[in-house]
Amino acid sequence: MAKYSLFLGCIAPLRYPGIETATMEVAKALDIDMDILDKTSCCPAPGVFRSFDQDTWLAIGARNLSLAEEKGAEIVTICNGCFGSLWEVADKIERDEKKKEYANSILKEIGREYKGGVKVRQFAELLYTDVGLDAISAKVTKKLDHIKAAIHYGCHYFKPDTVKEIDNRERPKTLDELVEVTGAISVDYRYKNACCGAGGGVRARAKEVAQAMTDQKLEAMKESGANCIVDICPFCHLQFDQGQGGLGTSFPVIHLSQLYVMAFGLDEGKNGFDAHAVPVKF
Question: Domains of the chain, with CATH numbers?
Answer without folding.
Answer: 4-123 (1.20.1050.140), 133-275 (3.40.50)
